[in-house]
Amino acid sequence: MIGKVVEINNLVVSVGTQPDASKILDNVSLQVSEGETLCLVGESGSGKSVTSLTIMGLLPKKILVPTHGSVRLAGEEILTATDRHLRSLRATTMAMIFQEPMTALNPVVPVGKQIDEVLRTHTSLDARSRRKRILEMMEQVRLPDVERIFASYPHRLSGGQRQRIMIAMALVLEPKLLIADEPTTALDVTTQKQILSLIRDLQKDHGTAVLFITHDMGVVAEIADRVAVMRYGHVVETGSLDAILRTPTQDYTRNLLSAVPSLVPRAARPATASAPVVLDTSELTKVYRERSMLGKVREVAAAQDVTLTLHKGRTLGIVGESGSGKSTVARCILRLIDPTSGGIRLIGREISFLSRNLLRPHRKHIQIIFQDPYRSLNPRLTVGETIAEGPVNYGMPKADALKRARELLELVDLPPDAITRYPHQFSGGQRQRIAIARALAMDPDVLVADEAVSALDVSVQAQVLQLLDDIQTRLGIALLFITHDLRVAAQICDDVIVMQHGRIVEQGPAGDILTSPKQAYTQQLLEAAPGRGWDFANFRPLATGMAAPAKTRDIALNS
Amino acid sequence: MAIDTIEPSSISAGAASGPRVSFRPSSAIITIAAICLIVVVASAIFAGVLAPQDPQKLAPAMRLKPGMPGFPLGTDAYGRDLLSRILHGGRISLMIGVGAAIVSVTIGLTIGLVSGFFRWADAIIMRIMDGLMAIPSILLAIAVVSLSGASLKTVLIAIIIPEIPRVVRLVRSVVLSAREEPYVEAAIAIGSSLPKILWRHLMPNTFAPLIVQGTYICASAILTEAILSFLGAGINPETPTWGNIMAEGRAFFQIKPSLIFWPGVVLSIAILSINLIGDATRDALDPRMKQRGTGK
């Protein structure tokens, strides 16, 4: 058919070649036309990446085998193509960009040379015209000072610049198809916005078909022409962007959309100025000193003059991009690192300069949940041992601590028999619940959540947020919630602090900051939030300037 | 079904990281290894009962004889029974191998944990270890033995000292990466004491590489002992050890290769069994590996 760049028909990919092998992809059919962007959305394990690897002919041989169906790229069958032919197709007809541009680039070769390699292998251009072509391409992806960047090594560039290099490399031979596998997931929102509009513009100029893989509905709303929703290796639903967002026909799609947190802050809870202050910092500063080879000392302020106050039962959010110092603040408050100056008062006690031993009795008042649920639990300890360790440290007999662990597991909605199992037997969301139970075992007054839901799928994220909210209501814990995601912040925070370059830019009630920010930087952050024009949970675009209350978050996620 | 239960399928995870090719001995092989090791150890322990001859009795008339009744594997250059010498030699060789492995791993683990966790100690300890590593291990061993006289104890010490820096480096590197893990920070946050963090959260990470290193030390200690014996800096050549027997047999290799062959076979079986059992223990200690094993 004319115009169809990729046509996948009834594709089945199995594990191994046995007839009873389990199917990773089952009966997947997709098309992408010239100049069109198809977004493939789904949660982890849905088969999005396997689909893209099949198109690229990069499936691990003999482990994942396409057993049925066809994949046609510009009319040519991919599944039966020889390796040699695939190799030339991969450069000239299709190209791929990945999530983490640092690992996709060779760290010991200047980026210009890496792009040059593509041209050298696949074209007969001479050195001068290749260089001209590369510089042109680098200008097209809007890199500044292209001559300098041409000769730079990857580590000299920022994440966004590296991703631009990857895009330049992918598009330099004008492929018909660009596969983008979560290309903006590792980037900050403002950079993400630039990269998305770059991909859009380049696509318009070159007529490239784009297969865009993402888990983020916001990104989908920004870039998709059509959307295919995947789950368990099936395509659940395909349709135009508008149809999927406004009138999804499948329950799973509806649930997925409903789980996207709204950017509109939730209804403000009654301010409780009378509630006691549980945590406050004054001019908290952390400076890292680097000594260079010649003995010159360079100072980097990771956090500077951070003053914040947290009341009992309230949630204070710290939002900012990577490198803004939000995690540094959290780790200073927990005294996992020592602040350079400034004060931290926990339940009225100054703890900023207590020694390790003097600090111990205060530790139980403040607890932390980390981002990565796969690394925050000791893989060698059972869930029971992990949760009981804290109380035992403070003198509770082991048997009582285990009994308490059982109660806490129930509180975080895990079966009590989980107590004898090991962390690897749980999913990411369940592990995060275990980490929450471990923190709660200490009866803390303050709970610090450092990007605690960022590594989770959106539906799991909604459940964990709901759990944190329940716990707060029930136990009156104060939450310090650190996130880069404004949507999450809007749904859980009472007050918000916006940080940039280690300093507080703006702070105030979430409702004010996230709807009418005063500072340019905050406005810019909100501007960049993907899909800000949509109210996903209610299947409609946001009317400008409205403040419709977010739909209740306790949506049923059953399918 | 709740969406929460979606498990990123292990297969697609495998797809991302590519095929995993690793040798995992089956339980049958491990059983055989265990039986072999038990036989070797038992025969060394009961050498006094099992050996047909006195391993040190010289019989000039019986020099370099082939196998015959009463001398199943023949005799060596002094007419001593080879089988009896191998059985008795196992005692010393295994003692040196296992002893060196246990002592050097224990000392190295302690120093390594301290060095990996405390930055101030690290600089001092690692410079000392670098210094030790700079001296060739055989040279160091010869120096130790010649300073204090050759006995089982000094040979053991001479073998252990050069092994310690290797263990320390290994443990330190594991601790350096493990102490940055969020679960270690979480342990600090829930008020676990330093010894507890070292013992419960950091040390178990070192077991897997240490067991492999330990079996390697065991094997290399048996060999180092043989080298020291060969150079005349080891245990008295009359006392049979596997290394001694082979060192003595070397001169007659072309006339009677079995003098090297048989102790070599026993040595290889012992070391191979130790290595296989070491691997199996490492897997059993790791709950993740345990599940993968039973999942098949």
Structure keywords:
heterodimer; A: 559 residues; alpha/beta; six-stranded mixed sheet; 20 helices; 22 strands; 26% strand; globular; disordered C terminus; B: 296 residues; mainly alpha; MetI-like fold; 0% strand
Task: Give your account of this protein's structure.
The complex is a heterodimer of chains A (559) and B (296). Helix content of chain A is 36%, strand content 26%. With 559 residues, chain A is α/β, with parallel strands linked by helices. In chain A, helix 14 crosses helix 15. The model of chain A is unreliable at 545-559 (pLDDT under 50). Chain B is mainly alpha-helical. Chain B has helices at residues 10-17, 27-45, 47-50, 82-117, 119-134, 137-148, 152-178, 182-189, 194-230, 242-249, 258-285, 287-295. Chain B starts with 9 loop residues before the first helix and ends with a helix. Residues 1-22 and 291-296 of chain B have low confidence and may be disordered. The interface between A and B is large, with 59 and 37 residues.
Quote the average pLDDT of chain A. Answer: 87
Give the number of helices of chain A: 20
Question: How large a portion of the residues of chain A is in β-strands, by DSSP E?
Answer: 25-35%
Secondary-structure class of chain A: alpha/beta
**What is the CATH C level class of chain B, in words?**
Mainly Alpha
Report mean pLDDT of chain B, rounded to a whole number.
Answer: 82
Number of strands of chain A: 22
Distance between the termini of chain A: 36 Å
- Tell me what the CATH architecture of chain B is: Orthogonal Bundle
Report the CATH superfamily of chain B.
Answer: MetI-like
Largest protein interface?
A-B, 59 and 37 residues
